[in-house]
Specification:
21% of the residues are buried. The chain has one helix at 2-27, and strands at residues 45-46, 53-56, 63-68, 76-83, 90-97, 113-115, 118-125, 129-136, 141-148. It is of the alpha+beta class. The protein folds into two domains: 1-30; 32-148, Jelly Rolls. It is 17% helix and 37% strand. A hairpin with a 2-residue loop joins strand 6 (113-115) and strand 7. Bound molecules: calcium ion.
């Protein structure tokens, strides 16, 4: 009987521990990022061109997005837009993964330009994948989008 009570009290203790994170998570529900996990290239969130995606920067967070060049030959130009109320709290870096290149990530020097409430990066790519890295102040919300021309 004593053993049974001991086992039951352990189970109750474990259940209580399991509920703690749920309760804590509930507090920050407004800042849920549905794209997580997306902290590195292996978990990069795939963007569909012209379909904006909302994100939130967490503590010690980086958010990685990717988009392949559209089908077809020739050089294509793209524009990445990150819209946020506080552009000064966001750092946007855009690179590329190019087939046949021995480097993992190529940095063609595409510059992030702040224009009012959004940050823009324009560039051109013949064939490959545009890689977008968003970092910044924890709690900053943003909307990221890529379009091709
Ligand atoms: Ca992330």
């Amino acid at each position: 009987m004593k053993t049974l009570i001991a086992v039951l009290s352990i189970i109750v203790a474990l259940l209580a521990l399991a509920l703690v994170p749920l309760a804590l998570g509930g507090c920050g529900a407004a800042a849920t990022d549905h794209n997580e996990p997306n902290d590195d290239l292996n978990t990069a969130h795939v963007l569909a061109p012209g379909v904006p995606v909302d994100g939130v920067i967490g503590p010690d967070d980086s958010d990685v997005f990717q988009c392949d060049t559209p089908e077809g030959d020739g050089i294509r130009s793209f524009i990445v837009t990150v819209q946020t109320e506080t552009p000064q709290d966001i750092e946007l870096q855009v690179g590329a993964s190019i087939p046949g290149s021995w480097e993992g990530i190529t940095w063609p020097g595409w510059k992030a330009v702040t224009k009012g409430d959004h940050i823009e990066v324009t560039g051109t790519l013949k064939k490959g994948t545009v890689l977008m890295f968003v970092k910044g102040t924890s709690g900053t919300t943003y909307t990221i989008d890529i379009t091709w021309r």
